Amino acid sequence: MEYQYPIDHDWSTEEIVDVIKYFESIEQAYEKGIERDQFMNAYRRFKEIVPGKAQEKNLCDEFEEQSGYSSYRTVKAAKESSAGDKIRMK
């Protein structure tokens, strides 16, 4: 798909890379499936960069609008699963 990842230009290059990895992990959950622990590590790093709920919601809504992939539903599925599970979204 062709779309841009939502980023904040105040972030460092490392933070931008880590946020993009998080959005890519959501894509992977929808396209192939992803290990729960791998996804949760990406999510925890994302939350270090974006600690506020309002900014998280704005970024994730923008990502969903462009990609069709729901960050909220993916995080919810990951939190409801057990360590070692594979997250596969539909």
Write the layout of secondary structure elements.
Blueprint: H1 13-31, E1 34-35, H2 36-49, H3 53-67, H4 71-80, E2 86-87
Antiparallel strand pairs: 1-2
Helix pairs in contact: 1-2
Protein name: UPF0223 protein DFO73_1189
Organism: Cytobacillus oceanisediminis
InterPro entries: BH2638-like_sf (IPR023324), UPF0223 (IPR007920)
Concise overview:
Belongs to the UPF0223 family. With 90 residues, the chain is mainly alpha-helical.
Describe this structure in words.
- It is a single chain.
- This protein has 90 residues and is mainly alpha-helical.
- The protein has one domain (13-85): BH2638-like (Annexin V, domain 1, Orthogonal Bundle), CATH 1.10.220.
- 64% of the residues lie in helices and 4% in strands.
- It is built from 4 helices and 2 strands.
- A two-stranded antiparallel sheet has the order 1-2.
- Helix 1 runs antiparallel to helix 2 (36-49).
- The protein starts with 12 loop residues before the first helix and ends with a strand.
